[in-house]
Structure formats: structure tokens, C-alpha cells
Fold each of these.
Amino acid sequence: MKFDADQLSVMLSETGVRDGPLHKRVSGGLRILIERGELPARSILPSERSLAIALCVSRTTVVTAYQELQEEGRIERRRGSGTRVRPPAFDDRETVSALALAGSDTSSSFLDGPLATLDLSTAALPGLPIVAEVAAGLTGADYAALVAQHHGYHPRGILPLRQRLAHWYTEAGIPTSEDEILITGGAQQALELITNGCLQPGDDVVVERPTYRGALEVFARSGCRLCEVPCDRSGVDVSALDALASARVPRLCYLQSAVHNPLGTVLSDDRRLRLRQLLRRHPSLIVVDDTSLAGTLFEEEAPPPGFAAPEAPDRVIVIGSMSKLFWGGLRLGWIRASTRVISRLARMKGRLDFGTSLVSQQIGLRLLEYVPEARATRRVQLTRGLTDLTGLLGDLLPDWTWDDPRGGPSLWVRLPHGDATHLAPMALRFGVAILPGAVFSADSTTKDYLRLPYALPRDVLTAGVQRLAAAWHAYSRHEAADIDLHSVTT
């Protein structure tokens, strides 16, 4: 397994090592990744020069770090074959497959804790107070009723919640029955179920550029071949999708219809209609990720959830979740699809966990009565945060640009030059963690972007952007020095 410099740079940033001399930070981060198995035995590490460029440090810093790890017996360096992770002497077999261990993923910031004093790398929203109020309102009688449901295993989800969600879709113009709803442990589990149930290694999967980072990781683990189509302020470019589907006949297309992560855009009515027309011409599955419940939209009137295609009911699958609107800690999501598809996915889910927590489902059922209030609260919270963030960026980083989002918890920002993957380790030295845009595309072509959250207190945003501005100026000087050095050596 070979790791390129940019990939390893992101992995190192997520170890949280930020104390001591630079070479100690590099060696310390690599040591952690090797000990965890994230860099499996015999993995090939990048050259000193390429890693130095990605980390915005001198080549000497990386050479010293590599030498330290070589002396410890953690890596081996041979002329002509590069630098590799040394297998342990007692047993060179991995307990868990290397594919499962290697790399950086969405869960890293939650697994390893905060990466820096100020964390601008995650756009997870804080829970709303109404969640605690509803949870506290469950009585002993409510719990007794749950326990009285014999074994308590409901792979499809409890009937009242499925009926309520089906009613919500029907009211929105998509006739739905409770048998067309499957409750899951969050949207991520929903996506895993769909991927495992509908895809095989080697299948072509179309995604937007950029798109949700977690989806890219799920599809990559499944061994699929990812194809990208552009996404703009109106959503996915349907003409480009039509052309690609005609040439490649993908097995599945993964699209976002409500508030796009990370763009903050919304699929237009015209493109929503054209996607339905596209289904008539192509046999691909369409997975519509609508995890926000449109609850983070700045406008009062929400767009319809996903879309349905009566002429191809088995080929449209919609994912929903309560994480963005209410609280991620509920771990409550769902899949809306045809009865036939839901039946098969429910059987798969039953083999995994026998069903999502009944307590979370009961809380979720009651929270659905508070959707209008929750949307209003999120709207105030997010528009205020967006105003704060854009004001700070305009004052401190006036060369950075963005399109105003229509919703969501984050801003998709473009750098005037450079690579956000290389800026990230520099930002960590100034005490602020950021997430580079490369992780939101299959081919890392969005390197000149980064995603910045704004659902944070103003004092946190202020300090974060101030540190980020200092890091940007240091990075720009470093980049200029590298360019000058390269022009001399060539």
C-alpha cells in the first residue's frame, strides 16, 4: 500500500500532535499512525521532498523525522525502494485488514478528539434544547410501553415513526406508505446499507464534484469506480450527468437535493424535473441524500424532499436524517424507497443490529412535531453565524472568495492561490484546525478550496479566523520561497 504526500499530510493533521520542534511533530504523528495500524506494515511512505512540500516544512525536517523512526525500528529506508513501515518482528500479519485501517476518514475528528485549540474542521451542529426537553418528557409509562413490546427488536423501525415519516413525504407530494420507510442508525448507516445492498466491486458510481466526504469513503471502501460531474448553484449539472450516463452506464448516481454539503446550494426545480426525465432514459439507481430534512435552509419555505419517479419506483432511493435539524447524538436516520427495495435492505439491517434504538425512535417521533420550530431556530442560528464568518473573512482575508450559500452549517471558500491540503498543517501550528477541500472530491481537484463552519460562537469564529489569517500569511511566504527555490534549481 502506497501513501501519497497529501494523503499522509491529512492523516498527520488528524493525529493532533502539535507540540515540540517540527521534526518531533512529524515523527510523533507518524509514530501514532504506525502504532494504530493506520500505516500498515510494508506501507510505502512518500519521499522526503514531497512530504515536506505537503507539510510546509523544510526537507531537513522530514529527513530528521524519518531518521528518528528508522533508529526506533519503525520504518526502513533502502536506496531505490524508498521508505516503508517496518513489520513487527514477532508477527507481520495484520489482525484487521489493511484496507480497513489505512487512511483518514470522516470519523477521525470524533475518534481522536479536538485537533487544535480551535477546531474549524467539523461542521457538526450543536443539539437543539428541544431535544433535551422532549427526551426528559418521556415518562415511566412511556418506557414501560416500549419494554412491553416483547423482544424489542424492530429491524424496520417502530411502526408509528415509519407512519409519521410516510405521512410527511406524502404531504410533500411524494405518496409514501410505512412499508416504504426503513429506520436506520443515522444517515451514514443508511448509505452503508444501500452501498452494500446495491453495489459490487468495480461498479461505476457517479458523484457530484464536490460532494459529501462520508459518501466518497463508503463508495471507495466498496471497491467502486467513482466518476464525477460538476455541481453549481442550481445543483448537479444534469446535462453532464446525462452525457456520462450514456457513455458509462453507471450502476448508481449519488446526489444531494436539499442543502448540499459542502456547497450549501439547493437542487433547482428545473433540474429536479430533468433528473426524473433522465431516469426514463437510463437504468441507473438514483440515491438522493436529503439528510438535512431541509431544516438548515435559510428560506422559510423548504424544497420538496428528494424526488419520486412513479415510472421507476425501484430506482429512486432517498436518505433522510434528524442529525442536522435536531441532534447528531440521536443517531436516527431513514431510507425512503419502494416496498421491494426496503424489504431487502431491512433484511440486511436485521442481520447487522436487529434494529435502531427504540428510545431514540420514540424521541424522534415526538421531535417531528417540532420541525417548524426547529427550522426557525436553525435559521436564526445559521444566518447569524454566516454573517459573522463572512464579515471576518472580508476583513482579515479579503482575497478569499465564496458564493453565498442558501443553507447549511458551512461556507465553501476558495483560496486565491495554493493548496488547502498544504495550508492545513500550517494552520495547526497556529492553533486552528481546518478541513481542506480535496477530501470532498474523488480526484482531489478541489484542492484550492476549504470548508469553514459558522455554527459557532462569535468569539470562537473571531479567534479562529484571526489564527487562520496568520497561518495564511505564513503559508503564502513559504509558498513564495518554494517557488523561488524551484526556479533557481531548474
Amino acid sequence: MKGAWLRVREWTGEFWFLPAIMTVMALLLAWAGIQAEERYGIPERLTWVYSGGESGARSLLSAVASSAIGVAGTVFSITIAALSYAAGSMGPRLLDNFTRDRGNQTVLGTFIATFAFTLFSLRSVQGGEDNPFVPHYNITVAMLLALACVAALVYFLAHVTRGINMTAVVNLLRDDLRRTLEQATRDHTEADRPAAPPEPFWTSGEVLRSPDSGYLQLLDTQALTAAAQRDGVALRMLVRPGDYVFPNTPIAVGVPRLPDGVLPALALGPRRVAGQDLEFTVRQLAEVAARALSPGVNDPVTAIDVIDRFGDALCRLHGRRWTSGVVYRDHQLRLVYPVTTYGGLLDSMFHMIRQYGSASPAVILRLLDVLSVVADGEQDEGRQWELRRHAELTMEDARRDTKNSRDLEEVEARYRSLQERWSSGEGTSESPSPVEPRRITS
């Protein structure tokens, strides 16, 4: 069910979907206007309705139709060119955001719907003395649609200008990350998480191999749990959303056998999508920072903005924890599936930024500051250890790549302050907590 909903959501989010709906509605409106005028005529009290003749109607409708489609084609062509250029420094997410933005779709739909409406109305204009007909209602509506196109053009230019802004793109990705983290974590006040069985438990199980390939976009845990409970088996998934599934590779193990309905609960696609794939959302922000730190762009301010957004997301995790990925029903193990861990999340956030920004003292200092702020409010020892690990990795790269001795002294001072906080009892022990094993991602 979730897989079908994901496909429907992807389909309705396409750039053409809303303009197509608006165009169909415009054609129906044009037909209804012509039918209403042919059947009932124009009441005398409607003085605001267009009252010109056949020649003026043709000229007006032709002008509106040609202007609407001409302006739409020109403006959108120039905009796509500008977006393609801007996407070189922000990543492909910018173009995806443009095509899926409902405001942009509505503007395109307004122009195309106006063109379709006026063209349909134009074909009904008839001259001569035998059976003349002028669709006065439709011409009036066409004039209103022309004004709507002018307003849509002004809105579109302002909207796209804001959308190309780097801060707007970063904030958009931050909002996606917040929503995904909210779905992936639970409050600490919930019941203790069940433990998964040891590895030997699965050695005698039946293995399911993937018949197809692609990115795993959705894992319907409710359907998988129901299938395992129905057949009285335990099911372990070997892949998680965001993994690329290769053909004929193991994706699930069932003990003592595989339940029916495993493959329908999985959705494969040609690209990664936000939702269950937490690391995809993180990597999009990390990619913005990595591009900003490339020699061709050299924009450390944007990288610092991304680091701040990551700190915002990590601070929101205080008091929350990951789901265990272990599901019991009626005191029987039914499903085990892999989940993102805190360590894996930090790796996705900071590895690329640290590697590309190791020669930028401003980036290193801000990264240490954010790790310090996150550590101040974090009480979990395992998470504290992961934060300390990233601080040590950051410092090691800074010592190797920082050229200026004064800059290095400032970085060292910031790192010593962080170490003193940990050693004074606000930190943690020397080993990570076994509660949250770390899944390292490249």
C-alpha cells in the first residue's frame, strides 16, 4: 500500500501534472461558456461582459493566445538556463526543487491553460450573416486570464529569484531533514527497545534474492510484519531505504522460511528519494557544502551555513532515539530491519565537509563550535563518543592542512577547550556505548 502511495506521490509531483489538470479544466470551462451562451444568450444586465463583434473577438483571442504561449516559452527557457548554471554550485537538488515546486507548476499551468482556453474559444467564433456567433463569455474570461498571466509572471520572477538563493536552498533541505529525523526517531520516554537475536539465529533461514535492481525507495515495515505474523516466521531485511539493490543479491532472510508478500512491500526506483532515506537528505546538504568548498567556487560561508543546519538537526535529537529495527508481535520476533545510527548520521554529515574544508580555518572552527554545542546538551555516552571522534578527526586534518601558524593556534585552542569540557565530566568514557552500534557510511 505504501509502495503504491509513493508511486502516486511521485507521479503527481511531476512538472507536467498540475499544468495538465489546469489545461483540462480550462478546456471544460471554455466548452461550458460556449454552451451557456448558445443556450441562454447574454442577459442585458451583464454590462461588463465583452460586447464587441466577430473581428474584434478574433483579434483579442489571437493576441492573448500568442502572448501567453510566447511569454511562457521564453521565460521558462531562460529560467532553466539560469537554474542549470546555478545548479553547478548547489547540486541537482535545485533543479528537482524547481520542477516539483507547486508555485512554478501553477505559473506554467496558468500560461498553458490560458493558451488552451483562448484557442478553444477562437475556433467557435463564426462570422457571416447566416449563423454568426461570438463567445462573449469566453472573451471576457480570456481577458481576465490575460491579467492573471501578468500577475503570474511577476510572481514567477520573484519566486525563482528567491529560489536560486543559496540560503533558501539550504533552508529547504534543512526542513526536509527535520521531517525525516522526526519520522526516524522516537521520544526517550517510550518503552525499552527490544533486542535482535544473535547472528547464528539466521544461518539456517531461507534467503530471498532480488529479482531486479535499483535504489530501495520504500520499506513497508507494517506489511512485512503482517506477512511474517500471518505465516508464523521471523523475517530479517538485509537492505534499507537508500541502498542500491543489485540483481540476484540477498535482500531478506526468513526463519524457518520466507513469508509470502515480501517483494510487494519493497519499492525500487532509479533514484534515491526523501522520506525513509535519512542519509539521502543529509547527503544533499553535505553536497552543497562540498561544492561550496571546491576550488572553483571557494564559498566557505555556504559551508558554514550547512554546518549550522546540521547542528540544528543534531540538537533536535536531544531526548530522542532511533527505533531499534526489531518488531515483536504477541511476544514473537517477526521483523528485523537495518536502521540509521547516530554514528552513521554524523559520518554522512561531516566526513565530506571535513575532508574538503580541512584547509579552511573558518570551516574547521565552526565545525568544532557546532560539535561543542551539540555535545553540551547530549547526555547519551555513545553519542558523546561519536561527537568526540569527529572532533578528533577534524583536528587531525586541520593540523595537516592548516598553513598559517596563527590560524592553527586558534584551532588548537578551540579543540583544547572542547577536550577540557569532556575531561571535566561533561563528556564521556573512552569507549562507545553498546546501545547504539555505529554504521559507518562512506
